[in-house]
Write a structure and sequence with these properties.
Length: 512
């Protein structure tokens, strides 16, 4: 500890030897720094605060009907665009800052400095944005902030309109292209249908369904034709007398003889027996035999009556006339069914013949319809989106979805924000005193001396037999004291000069 103290004392004595050199350096540094500070221009800050109101009553009312852009993202994008080079060039031309640059290199430096001095701050929570700019000219600083504020409003409002117009233009182009494609698909589909008439699916039924229906219709027509032919054959038999069923004429000319009554009774009994027994049952076989014998007897009776001149009476019988009418109708029905069977047969034969052609045509038609449906769906969707874009543009123009409220217009404070003259003056004073002390210490290290015999003995390694002190008296003591007082006065004068400058700056700031 004693060694450290003695070393510090030795440094202090050495520095004291070059005190006037240090004072001179301190004065030079302080005067030079204060002179530099005096000629530094004042820097003023212009600020403006704006509130972006994105709430509108139409937004919830038009939800789902129009395309609602993200207003917050749009504002954020515009604030970034404000610092782009084209916008900075526009600001420089609007505020005549470009007159300070004469060459492209100077213009680049001017734009870089302009970007560094512009400060845009905003909060997403409350949508408050602050725009500030610093410049040595208060008017220029205010003009720059005003220009930036105007650009923020114009670009934000114009961005939505430009986007809407671009979207509508793009949709119009796409609609025109899809309309041409839709017309081409219409023509292609029409030509295909005209070329393959008769091969198109009917009522949503494909080839195999049509073949199945045609086959079923043919089988049904054949069945009806067979039934009609059987009916006609039965009627012919009735009329020819092979198996007459319209009654046996009595000798008096009355219809409905006893043979018919017995045959009808046996027929009813046969029906009842068949409900209970099989056709091989003895009772059923016996009843059938009796009915057969009675019919044979009735036939012989009719033959006898016809030979005896009773045929005219039979032909005048209403039952006989009704049978003739039924036979004619049945024969007409048979003829119609034959035509129908032939038509169905031709249809079935045609479909079977086109087994490899019609399915291919149907598959190609399905592809054409599918392509047409996709094109038409896209076309309708584009039409719908274009209408949404138009409605969105109209909503933006009439709803004012973004409102800018100027909270604080561009304002420049009378007090400059830079340079911090009082702080810099104090720093120059401290730096000057430190520089003077450092220079004196540096000189003492160039020419070191020993002021302590212990330090001398430790450094040289030789024993020190004794020391001789200096006693100042008379003029020497007075001169020494005057020297110390002059040094103190020099330092105090430097400090006083600093305080005077500070007081002057305070008075100037208060006056302004």
């Amino acid at each position: 500890m004693n060694q450290i103290v003695s070393q510090l004392v030795n440094y202090a004595y050495g520095t004291w030897r070059y005190r006037w050199y240090g004072a001179l350096v301190a004065w030079l540094v302080c005067l030079g720094g204060w002179t530099w500070l005096h000629f530094q221009p004042n820097i003023y800050r212009a600020t403006a605060q704006v509130y972006v109101d994105t709430d509108t009553i139409l937004r919830p009312l038009l939800a789902g009907m129009v395309v609602q852009p993200n207003i917050q993202n749009k504002v954020d994008l515009v604030t970034r665009v404000l610092l782009s080079r084209p916008n900075l060039e526009k600001v420089a031309r609007s505020t005549d800052l470009d007159l300070r640059a004469r060459t492209p290199e100077e213009m680049d430096r001017l734009l870089l400095k302009l970007e560094q001095r512009i400060d845009i701050r905003g909060t997403h929570r409350d949508n408050f944005y602050t725009i500030s700019y610093i410049d040595r000219d208060p008017g220029t600083a205010k003009n720059v902030v005003q220009t930036l504020l105007n650009s923020l409003v114009e670009n934000t409002l114009g961005a939505g309109r430009v986007d809407s117009r671009a979207a509508q233009h793009f949709l119009d182009q796409q609609i025109e292209l899809y309309e041409q494609k839709l017309n081409a698909d219409d023509d292609r589909l029409r030509d295909f249908k005209q070329k393959h008439v008769g091969m198109m699916p009917q009522q949503g039924k494909d080839y195999y369904n049509r073949l199945q229906d045609a086959t079923a219709q043919l089988n049904d027509a054949k069945l009806q034709l067979d039934e009609a032919q059987r009916t006609a054959d039965a009627l012919r038999k009735e009329l020819s007398g092979d198996e007459p069923t319209f009654g046996i004429m009595s000798e008096t000319g009355a219809g409905g003889g006893p043979l018919d009554a017995r045959i009808n009774a046996l027929q009813s009994r046969l029906d009842d027996l068949l409900l209970q027994y099989t056709p091989q049952h003895p009772d059923v076989i016996a009843v059938k035999q009796q009915i057969k014998q009675l019919k044979e007897q009735r036939r012989k009776e009719l033959t006898r009556l016809a030979a005896a001149g009773a045929v005219g009476a039979i032909s005048e019988n209403p039952v006989y006339q009704q049978l003739k009418i039924s036979l004619s109708q049945t024969q007409a029905k048979v003829a119609g069914l034959r035509v129908k069977v032939q038509a169905y047969q031709k249809r079935v034969d045609y479909l079977k013949k086109m087994v490899n052609t019609i399915p291919a045509v149907e598959a190609q038609l399905a592809r054409l319809n599918r392509d047409y449906a996709v094109t038409r769906s896209q076309y309708n969707d584009l039409i719908k989106r274009r209408e949404q874009a138009r409605m969105s543009q109209q909503a933006e123009q009439h709803s004012d979805d973004v409102k800018f409220k100027i909270i604080d217009p561009p304002f420049v404070a009378s007090k400059p924000v830079a340079p911090k003259r009082m702080l810099l003056a104090s720093a120059i004073l401290v730096g000057g005193l430190g520089a003077g002390f450092g220079f004196a210490f540096f000189l003492s290290q160039l020419k070191p001396t020993f002021n302590d015999r212990r330090l001398l003995r430790r450094v040289t390694g030789f024993p020190v037999l004794g020391t001789v002190g200096t006693v100042f008296r008379g003029r020497a003591l007075t001169r020494r004291r005057l020297d110390a007082a002059a040094l103190a006065l020099t330092v105090l004068l430097l400090v006083g000069l600093y305080l005077g400058g500070v007081a002057l700056m305070v008075l100037k700031t208060g006056a302004s």
